[in-house]
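A quick aside before the break. I want you to see a complete sequence-to-structure record at least once, exactly as it would be stored in a machine-readable document. Don't worry about memorizing anything.
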Amino acid sequence: MKNVKLVAVDMDGTLLFPDKAMPDWAIPLVKRLIDQDIMFAVSSGRLYHNLMKLFEEVVHDIVLIAENGALVMDKGEIVYSSVITREDARLLLEEVRKLPGTKTTICGLDAGYLFASEIEDLADALSSGYFANPVVIDTIDDIPEGEQILKFAIFDEAGDAVTTIRDGLAHVDHKFQVAVSGAEWADIMNVGVNKGVAMKALQAKYGITYEETMAFGDQLNDMEMMSEAYYSYAMANGIPELKAVSNFEAPSNEESGVLKVVEELLAGRV
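That is the input. The structure line, written in tokens, reads:
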């Protein structure tokens, strides 16, 4: 086995099947990595509580890089977080509401907050379990004062998040970072926040190098993470831009590409 010490895996479009289902092999594979003293990190735009629920069987043995890198939890301990101030959150909400055809959710450490006026438009996201701990609010001031706001997750009903959200917020890119996670969704964090920064914080904590890191992804929000791993695998179903900056390609998520590559790693053939 090559000297890989950290395996980081995106969720949607990567580990999960196209229908968003968790493969039966996922948790047993994580356990096998742990048994080989290889650290496993989920690296996702999903909320912390959503990831906790999906990986509850092994959550105390793995790392959760949640909210597109705004939060890194290592066995329940915060390694890194980037909190949006209340003042900036109000400013961001004003700008987002100028974008046509978008709906806003606000993701905190304790819960995901959805506006009552937009619940019907976000029914699919709610039914998917993305918001493991949803709280309905009328205004942003209804979010408890002690809550840590980590990101905004914006839905574009036109299915062109790059144009509508990323390009539409280009005028505030000195303050906020936009990560496109799919055709309809984009996350907004403090400037400088991404999965790559989160990975670097984790690597620094454990003294893990670029050459000892393996990562899997499929979308624009995985770009920076790939730059922190020599064994960077873009999924076959991933976007061309990600494949261009990755060193390797894995079979698609429909073909259980993560499983196939990690099996090669465990067998010492990677």
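Two observations worth writing down. The chain has two domains: 6-81+194-266, 86-190. The domain at 6-81+194-266 is CATH 3.40.50.1000 (Rossmann fold). We'll return to this after the break.
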